[in-house]
Write a structure and sequence with these properties.
The protein is an alpha/beta fold. It has three domains: about 10-60 and about 120-190 and about 280-340, FAD/NAD(P)-binding domain (3-Layer(bba) Sandwich), CATH 3.50.50; about 195-275; about 350-425, no CATH class. The chain has eleven helices and 19 strands. It has helices spanning about 15-30, 65-70, 130-140, 250-255, 305-320, 325-330, 335-360, 360-375, 385-395, 400-405, 410-425; strands spanning about 10, 35-40, 60, 80-85, 85-90, 95-100, 110, 140-145, 150, 160, 165, 170-175, 195-205, 210-215, 225-230, 235-240, 275, 285, 290. A seven-stranded mixed beta sheet has the order 6-5-14-15-16-13-17, with helices on both faces. A six-stranded mixed beta sheet has the order 8-2-1-12-19-18, with helices on one face. A hairpin with a 6-residue loop joins β14 and β15 (about 225-230). It starts with 7 loop residues before the first strand and ends with a helix.
């Protein structure tokens, strides 16, 4: 089972995973001297403001993703970038830890997945997802506005929309976890486990820098972490937790003392409660079928767009260089997905360690003193700060960050922090 000149590839989903899949397929096909017929099917219009045009995501692009885009000669237009982020402030009760960008070349960007909040004043913002989809079309993919009803198995799969049927030599499923995967039961696909987030957009509070992300942990109950992420005139509120309430954003703003910044009432402009994947799918490839992005596997809590790039690249490379049989994807694609899943285990340990620190005022003082002491050290010695930066930006692997956070320099800095904490109880 190999793709040939004129082979039809149908990509179901036009978000980043689908657009990346098209771009990578076109790149590898060109290198192999193949001409493919690539069609992207997407029901939404990402140029619309509000939930109808949005992929329900905080919209942070990691350093590694920004660097990876250069592999595809993609340069994000200035109008798509809402803010360049160079600092994170962690709010821990009475303690505030400021984590500065470790290297000025490590860009962290905030973008809109659609065209901004539903209640935003004009003009509408430029959409990252829409721009990326346009890049795929400019390089040779076609796009049809269509809602897929089912993908049937057979000698060649058939993608069925409300108006048409598309027999395909390869189907790439890139629907994420907030849409039902339209695969017939014959495929045996089981989606990832998910947790619920609560999100909204608010006017950027007066006095808040449009280059600084604020991270909160204490409230509401069940919160793992919440972020206030600047996006030009506005800010995104993203809350991740266990069984958080539908009204979690207002509870968060009140509990963190932020509601008094909005005397005219609730500042919510575009609320939603998306799902975020916390495990891998099963049976995410078969003969002439491969699932990419969140619908297959993604990084835990962070850098979902970066994982979409990575999985789409591995799937496209396998399809062109090996073939499109299930055994080809098992050999060429599955190892990439397993590496992401294995790295997520380190991520869980990191967030558990962080949770333990939060529950102990003394440990928090030690950590805070270590961070403050590191500020006067050379960047290479600021290991605890860099570990936190990596955790909350998603720019480095969890495995690397785990070992960084327990290496000799990190532990010595924590010991120094303990000495300072005892001197300044």
């Amino acid at each position: 089972m190999r793709l040939e000149n004129g082979s039809r590839v149908v990509i179901v989903g036009g978000g980043p995973a689908g657009s990346f899949a098209a771009l990578h397929l076109l790149r590898y096909a060109a290198e192999a001297g193949l001409r493919l017929d690539i069609t992207i099917l997407e029901a939404r219009d990402f140029s619309r403001p509000g939930p109808g045009g949005c992929n329900k995501c905080a919209g942070i692009l990691s350093t590694s993703l920004v660097q990876n885009l250069e592999k595809l000669s993609l340069h994000i237009p200035t109008g798509v970038i809402q803010s360049e982020l160079n600092a994170y402030i962690l709010h821990l009760g009475e303690i505030e830890l400021s984590i500065q960008q470790p290297d000025p070349d490590w860009r962290i960007l905030s973008v809109y997945r659609g065209s901004g909040p539903r209640l935003a004043s004009p003009p509408p913002a430029s959409s990252f997802d829409n721009w990326l989809l346009e890049q795929a079309q400019a390089r040779g993919a076609s796009m049809r506005r269509a809602r897929v009803q089912t993908i049937q198995s057979g000698a060649k799969p058939t993608v069925i929309t409300t108006r048409q049927e598309f027999p395909a030599d390869l189907v790439v499923l890139a629907t994420g976890v907030n849409s039902r995967a339209p695969l017939s039961r014959a495929w045996g696909y089981k989606p990832p486990l998910t947790e619920i987030m609560a999100q909204d957009e608010i006017p950027l509070p007066v006095g808040y820098s449009d280059h600084t992300v604020h991270i909160f942990f204490d409230y509401p109950p069940g919160l793992i972490f919440g972020g206030l992420i600047p996006k030009g005139r506005y800010a995104n509120i993203s809350l991740l937790g266990h069984r958080i309430s539908p009204d979690a954003v207002n509870d968060f703003l009140e509990g963190q003392g932020l509601m008094n910044l909005f005397p005219d009432g609730s500042p919510g402009m575009c609320g939603c409660t998306p799902r975020v994947a916390v495990s891998s799918a099963t049976n995410y490839y078969a003969d002439r079928l491969v699932v990419v992005g969140d619908a297959a596997v993604t990084r835990l809590y962070k850098d979902g767009i970066g994982a979409a790039f990575t999985t789409s690249e591995a799937a496209a490379r396998t399809a062109i260089q090996r073939g499109v049989a299930g055994r080809d994807f098992a050999a060429g694609y599955r190892p990439t997905c397993r590496r992401i899943a294995a790295d997520n285990r380190y991520g869980r340990w990191l967030f558990r360690l962080w949770s333990i620190r939060q529950q102990s005022p003394f440990l928090l003082r030690i950590w805070g003193q270590a961070i403050l002491a590191e500020a006067s050290l050379p960047p290479a010695a600021q290991v605890n700060s860099r570990a936190l930066w990596g955790m909350f930006t998603g720019s480095e692997s969890y495995r690397w960050l785990f070992w960084l956070s327990i290496n000799r320099t990190a532990l010595f800095n924590l010991w120094q922090g303990a000495r300072l904490a005892r001197k300044n109880p």
